[in-house]
Amino acid sequence: MLSEDAYAIAREAFGHTITYSPKVFIPLTKLCRDRCGYCTFAQAPARLTSPYMDLEEVMAVAEAGRSVGVTEALFTLGERPELRYDVAARWLAARGYRSTVDYVATAANMVLEATGLLPHINAGALYEYELAQLRAVSASQGMMLETLSEVEAHRMAPDKDPARRLATLHTAGQLRIPFTTGLLVGIGETREDRIDTLTAIAAAHEQYGHVQEVIIQNFLPKAGTAMAKWPAAPEEEFHWTIAAARLLLPTSIHLQAPPNLSDEPAALLAFGIDDFGGISPVTKDHVNPERAWPAIATLGDAVAAAGLHLAPRLTIYPSFVGMRTDFLDASVRPAVLTLSDAHSLSRDDHWYSGDDAPPPPLPTRDVRTSRIQALLRDYTPGYEFSETELTTLFSARDGDVRAVVDLADQVRTELIGSEVTYVVNRNINYTNVCTFKCRFCAFSKGPLSLNLRGEPYLLTLDDISTRVREAAERGATEVCLQGGIHPKFDGEYYIDVVAAVKAGSPDIHIHAFSALEVFEGARRSGQDLTTYLTRLKDAGLKTLPGTAAEILDDDVRALLCPDKLKTDEWLAVHEAAHGVGLHSNITIMFGAIESPEHWARHLIRTRDLQLRTGGFTEFVPLPFVHMATPMFLQGKSRRGPTFRECLLMHAVARLHYATVINNIQVSWVKMGIEGSRRILQAGANDVGGTLMDENISRAAGAVHGQEMDLTTLEALVAPLGRPLVQRSTLYRTLARG
Ligand code: SF4
């Protein structure tokens, strides 16, 4: 069956996630020089109070959308009305606009700048210079081909000339514009015509790779139009066309049907769509004003009944957003990243790591998809997930999130019981001067830093000894030392720091030096890693923190921290450390620019090393705190992970590392109190250090305190009904309660 094949292709290509774009509809002008036989959108000037919406009206609609979480501003308008109506030409001229396209560019830019909503512009058949002008102020553009056949409905519509519209589609491709197009079914074209139109779209996409989605829209007759007495597109033809489109189009093109033009939109899923297009909680569908949008919750329930997830997307589809595409204009990219999650879909919450907003509840819709359920059903602790399997788990939504989290919590109980552990420690960041150029780092004072906070400093060795002494007097069992890479440091410096710590307290556990510090220390000493690490160990170093890992993938590192050590070098430092008897841990800084495939590779590479050495004690996810980082302020990163992504990072890691690394830590500095509590129910068992003087996250904008006192820690854990246990750095029990 055509539809079964189409459905299978859609699931294979896009998984179990069905998308929609929360939008406001901005009908900038309802004047149009075309007279399509089915259209009620276009109006005569006499029926309008003004030929165009003015900028205040545009902003009012955009603001109304922004206030309820909408991400798309859809500009739909008539084509070149100034060529037909003097009133339109005069309105534009009086305000200094050369054309309707010129005006829409101004309005879209204002919306983008003032609200962050992403313009999607449907301005019709355009010339190259017009498409280019709109590219700079929009995340995507669109134009329905409708049909490439000559139909009576278009006889009075010069802009519906098939060659002209096809030329627009191709020019958009040449300009690298993420583009939406589509077919209107039932306006006099035949099945063969539809196949020809789909084939032409596929050919344009093969050439330029720019068609992000194809809309299959069913014609519905409207009173007062030339086609008022035409029959609606027969359901069978509509469904056949959706399925044919899915079979004919490349799977890199998404397939959409409008959700408000069918009585049961979810039934269209069976024919191969994976998207419902824009849905507005604020404005009506000005093209089909008689057809109300479905409520998102109702549509979500219907999609859930089909065993699929409904998720919000941005107007630009994920494959056009990724780290290295050139489809998005540089002036629009910051707004897109601000709204994106790790899948380059729309963030589904308003929680940000390091901020004090409470985390959202777990999703209530109990959709469990076959792919994730199969992975969880077959899972036993010790199982090593593949990259594809991990990426699938990271894509969990709705009931799948709960299932992953619940299994991680169960595995945590089975492997290490119910204790929640912590270590009393002090952070000593001995310098914030650094020669490296990590683009996420708000802590360092160096060549690339924005100098947003604080002055450059370098503690003396005596200062370090004093701080260690104070820490020991206050009950700390560990000091954690890390800092920038000061241009004056040589390899001996790190040895001297260890000696200074011992001078402050001979017995305190010295947990110090990221892989970068060790790598630089060895390099500046002219010694190999093993020799240098042995010297550090002999001086008194006990364990290494897993920092400087960021994302262990060189494609990501090239953008995040281009001059820092590479993936293999980070792994080599830890392998060498384990080889000389120094344990260490693994961190991952996630939520800045990377995608779930990179998380998967990070987990796999570190687990592989653990199988060889057994030297890692714990895994510490560090959600990216974006607020004051150079990358975010320059518009080059997202706003950290969503809370769902944080839950999944800890839970999936628990499953993946189970039996080889059994401690999963939550960072209270990044997750906050309530967030940490929730993560402790998602596979984590440790809250890390009490961290007197935590500086690095605070420099990035985190509001959570510089130190966790025992009372707060007890209050954090008490609602869980689990025992709180003080541990040593190497997880020996020191005190209960
Ligand atoms: S993260 Fe570390 S190495 Fe990178 S700039 Fe900041 S202090 Fe320097």
What's the arrangement of secondary structure elements?
Layout: H1 2-14, E1 17-26, H2 55-67, E2 72-76, H3 86-94, H4 100-115, E3 118-122, H5 128-135, E4 140-142, H6 162-174, E5 179-185, H7 191-208, E6 211-218, H8 235-248, E7 254-256, E8 275-279, H9 296-305, E9 309-312, H10 333-339, H11 370-377, H12 387-394, H13 398-416, E10 420-423, E11 425-428, H14 461-473, E12 478-481, H15 491-504, E13 509-512, H16 515-525, H17 529-539, E14 543-544, H18 554-560, H19 567-579, E15 583-590, H20 596-613, E16 616-623, H21 630-633, H22 643-657, H23 668-680, E17 686-689, H24 696-699, H25 710-717, E18 724-727, E19 733-736
Parallel strand pairs: 1-2, 1-8, 1-9, 2-3, 3-4, 4-5, 5-6, 6-7, 10-17, 10-18, 11-12, 12-13, 14-15, 15-16
Antiparallel strand pairs: 18-19
Helix pairs in contact: 1-8, 2-4, 6-7, 7-8, 12-20, 13-22, 14-15, 15-16, 15-17, 16-17, 16-19, 17-19, 19-20, 20-22
Iron/sulfur cluster (SF4) binds next to loops.
